[in-house]
Design goal:
About 35% of the residues lie in helices and about 30% in strands. The chain is of the alpha+beta class and about 100 residues long. Helix 1 packs antiparallel against helix 3.
Length: about 100
């Protein structure tokens, strides 16, 4: 299961948003069922971030979303975001694994 989350920082909040999201990556690596959690920042607009997530199944994603560190991150992000995060759920069709 793939999740793509798109987040946009308010003006002047991109560095703080990035700091919180980078910290989250280190916490997610301990979660069982999370296969990949990748944070990227737009080359054209440093206020735009994308998180690409891969889970073994929906239960693993639900577990991730219910962890204390996820809830803490969500609360910390709220005042930094320019609008609600855009979340997409996908089924993986093909993958390149080197």
């Amino acid at each position: 299961m793939i999740v793509v989350a798109k987040l946009t920082a308010k003006d002047g909040m991109d560095k703080k948003l990035k700091e919180i999201l980078v910290d989250m990556v280190s916490k997610v690596k301990e979660e069982e069922g999370t296969l990949l959690y990748s944070l990227s920042c737009s080359q054209q607009d440093p206020k735009q971030f994308v998180i690409y997530e891969k889970y073994v199944d929906m239960d693993a994603f639900i577990h991730h979303s219910s962890t204390a560190h996820f809830k803490e991150m969500s609360a910390a992000l709220a005042p930094l975001l320019d609008g609600a995060p855009e979340i997409g759920l996908y089924d993986e069709v093909a993958e390149l694994d080197k």
